[in-house]
From TrEMBL:
Lineage: Bacteria, Pseudomonadati, Pseudomonadota, Alphaproteobacteria, Acetobacterales
Key words of the record: Membrane, Transmembrane, Transmembrane helix
InterPro entries, per the entry: DUF445
Keyword Transmembrane: yes
Full protein name: DUF445 domain-containing protein
Claim: Cell cycle is one of the keywords in the record: no
Taxonomy, superkingdom: Bacteria
PANTHER family per record: INNER MEMBRANE PROTEIN, INNER MEMBRANE PROTEIN-RELATED
Transmembrane segments: 17-36, 395-416
């Protein structure tokens, strides 16, 4: 038993002893009143004390009947708390759910707490939100692992071609190309393509020469192929290499033609629905190809591994990005009163939506908790916490009975004379 219960038990014992003392005092005064020679004072004392005894006994019975059977007698409707514990738990649960946990109370609490302000201040404090950023970053690998589920892969495989091949896909491509063109980065893309083409030609020059010879032989016959195949192959490869050399950074008609073609394609994608639809269809078919899907899967695996490794680093980019995003959100809430009001309203709407179910669960929870309590223990705990006040009921009943008995005796005496009792 803890110290608080011990203090409550001691206080209850003191008040119970005093209430019993008053009852015994009334009994002694009643006996004294009858023992004294007959007189108005003796009769008044006896009547008052008798009423005090009756009032004290009645209140003792009422208080005792709440927690146990008076004198151990099987009197109906006694030991109310032990016998009605389950029903009391259900009633307490319904009361708390329906009269305490209400929509108006929820609105009042949210208005007083200002949930949006609390969230904003927390997010704006980088030192406070840092653990949250680290926790969110640490959750990224688990989130990425959930995307490894076969159904998620199949959904992405079906969804990505549809999104890329939809009406907005061509517009996205057009905006990306215009951004490249505005920054002059389209030439870097062309340089990359040319370097790759040169590398391929250098690595496969012999196989390309043989392929051209074979094509000449198939078109002109064996004799022409023997006489001119090598010559034609060399001339073709030399011409290609010469044009590639001309396309080095600087003035190049092919570079200018590429830029003009790029501008023309951007205009067509932005203004010609048929062209945009054709590009979307081509993108959809390309992304749906098994080889592209396999390549995208490899890209995703590499990206996932990189994100997982970075998220595990407290000083990594993922933590910094999340921390910055949380800080920006906190500043936004701090500066925008309308945003705070909307967030508080959203929290209130969410809680009110969940309120009916929460009320039912709360009532069931309270009833279940009370039902699970040991009957003797719960009776003692309730008595310890309200028993002292109930002893005042006994004291007041004894004193009020004494006073009421005296007043009533005097009133009857004034009306009819001496009262027989």
């Amino acid at each position: 038993m803890n110290a608080q219960d011990e203090a409550l038990r001691a206080a209850l014992a003191r008040h119970r002893a005093f209430a019993t003392f008053l009852l015994l005092l009334m009994g002694a005064l009643m006996v004294l009143g009858y023992a004294l020679p007959p007189s108005l004072g003796a009769d008044l004392l006896a009547a008052s004390a008798k009423a005090g005894v009756i009032g004290g006994l009645a209140d003792w019975f009422a208080v005792t009947a709440l927690f146990r059977r008076p004198l151990g007698l099987p009197i109906p409707h006694t030991a109310i708390i032990p016998r009605q514990k389950e029903r009391l738990g259900q009633g307490l649960g319904r009361f708390v759910a329906n009269h305490v946990f209400t929509e108006s109370e929820v609105a009042r609490v949210i208005a007083r707490l200002d949930v949006a302000g609390i969230v904003g201040n927390f997010l704006a404090d980088r030192q406070a939100s840092r653990p949250a950023a680290e926790a969110l970053a640490a959750a990224l690998p688990r989130l990425l692992q959930t995307l490894e589920d076969g159904r998620a892969r199949r959904m992405l495989t079906r969804l990505l071609p549809r999104v890329a091949g939809g009406p907005g896909g061509a517009q996205v491509v057009a905006r990306a190309l215009r951004a490249l063109l505005a920054g002059g980065r389209h030439q870097a893309v062309l340089d990359l393509a040319l370097d790759r083409l040169k590398l391929i030609l250098a690595e496969r020059q012999d196989s390309l020469r043989d392929a051209i010879k074979t094509r000449v032989r198939e078109s002109g016959g064996a004799l022409v192929g023997w006489a001119a195949g090598a010559y034609v192959a060399n001339r073709v490869l030399d011409a290609v290499n010469t044009e590639l050399v001309k396309m080095e950074p600087g003035d190049s008609s092919l570079r200018q033609a590429f830029e003009a073609w790029l501008e023309s394609e951007i205009e067509r994608l932005e203004n010609e629905p048929q062209r945009a639809a054709a590009l979307g269809n081509a993108m959809r078919q390309a992304l749906a190809h098994p080889a592209v899907a396999e390549w995208l899967n490899d890209v995703w695996n590499r990206l996932r591994d990189a994100l997982a490794a970075d998220a595990a680093n407290p000083n990594g980019r993922s933590v910094a990005v999340i921390e910055g995003a949380l800080a920006n959100a906190g500043r936004f809430l701090a500066e925008d009163e309308n945003a705070r009001a909307k967030l508080n309203a959203a929290v209130e709407r969410t809680l009110n939506t969940l309120l009916p179910s929460a009320q039912t669960r709360l009532a069931e929870f309270i009833a279940g908790v009370v039902k699970s309590w040991d009957t003797a223990e719960v009776t003692e705990k309730i008595e310890l916490r309200v028993g002292r006040d109930l002893q005042y009921v006994r004291m007041n009943g004894t004193i009020v009975g004494f006073l009421a008995g005296g007043v009533l005796y005097l009133l009857i005496y004034a009306l009819v004379g001496r009262v027989s009792h």
